[in-house]
Prior knowledge:
A: 4 strands; B: alpha+beta; 4-stranded antiparallel β-sheet; about 40% helix; lyase (chain B); PhnI (chain B); lyase activity (chain B); Carbon-phosphorus lyase complex subunit PhnI (chain B)
Amino acid sequence: MSEETTASPPLSPADQTTARRQEIMAVIAETPASALAKAFESYPDHPSHELVRGPETGLVMVRGRMGGTGGAFNLGEVTVTRCVVRLASGETGSSYILGRHKQHALQAAILDGLWQNPDHRQKVEDDILAPLENSRRQRQEEIKAETAATKVDFFTMVRGDD
Amino acid sequence: MYVAVKGGEKAIRNAHKLLAKRRRGDTSVPSLTVDQIAEQLALSVARVMCEGSLYDEGLAALAIKQARGDLIEAAFLIRAYRTTLPRFGYSETLDTAKMLIERRISATYKDLPGGQLLGPTFDYSHRLLDFAMAAENEGALDAVESETPLNEGMPRVTDLLSDEGLMEADPLPEASDAVGDLTREPLSFPADRDLRLQNLARGDEGFLLSLAYSSQRGYARTHPFTGEIRYGEVEVEFFAEELGFNVKLGAIKVTECQMVNQFSGSAKSPPKFTRGYGLVFGQVERKAMAMSMVDRALRWEELGEEQTAPVQDTEFVLSHSDNIQATGFVEHLKLPHYVDFQAELDLVRRMRAEWFAARDQQDPYAQTDLETGKEAAE
């Protein structure tokens, strides 16, 4: 996440939509539940929805790579809460989020559904996602800046040179 | 052997009530909140997540509170809890090269791309108690400095060395290689490196630390250098089948340690550095280091080394690293073993009777000693 992804061939419109949807799902997942709730409540046009699945909490086994780049191994599990909703306008919204926060997963799924609706997409982008992406970037920049202040330059002393 | 017992319900109930009271302690002292534990005892939380093998800071903090700070008991609670949840599946592999770095150091390279970033560390502190923290009001903290980050990439040190061919490359798996999972099948031997790393990642920090230390002191020397330690956030991705694409679930904090060790070489390949690998949940640096050293020692066979020490004994190391299993077996000795012990008692009485009978046959005068209770052989 701290590095730019390397250049890849141009994506088709459908793939671009999927790529953007993956991004917004990531931003929503990384936003603290309380901050997401606030953004969600402030959205004026709440659609009615029905639950298709969950919200339910389960486990995902996280995998690492031997030596960082080799074969996979199982590191340990994380708790994950997921949810699927169907909006009255017909879209199906999904969420998968670290932790056990059911309201977070539910609101995330509704937002994912709303974003898929052409009448809502721009508004969701502007009113909800842009501020959340901004806070996320700020948080990451703060960590980078605080860490950068601890950058050290060691000097190697020459022994027995007197 | 343990034979089930009945009874004692009332005493057990009362004991648990008493435990609850002692756990809470003096009620004039405010109760700890789970958030306080998660925020201020973050390294205890990280250890419980590691050894409980479940990343969830809130659950680990709750477990620590319930266990009165006993971290093995807390990890036990976490392991028990995880059995109540369904498994959604396996994540994509973490990419530690894309970590949002909070700490990154190398003991082998002074000047490396991205620099040495100390981050939040106890290193170079004087280990003097800070009595200001014991005061009712700790006072304001010093403001943290900020500097403009370089925003250059932070390649893993081991990747730098591999460019020159000086470092062994990570062997890539065969496409058909299934990844072993100890939570699905019990450990069996010989254990491949995937199972070994999973076992070590959830193993007891103290046990791994001692084993790593033994390897430094000469029991299977591996001449380790800390190639790199990095700590920070990595995103977890999961392929959601119903969506048909990868979803980012959020970020977890991990510590990665690349230990660089002495050369292997053969008729076919020139000498190069070898590596041990450590990866753990949270900022658990001591364990990540120990894990990488033990991982390296366990690779003796693959690297054509001689087996001389306990740290190289896969079966010994992996069978005894899990502190939940270990504490279960050791602590079960507290439970009533009356039937079992009764059998032993009968046996030892019979053996003694035979022993005295045999002796009396050889030396009739010894009987006197037995009567006065002065039994020399006892």
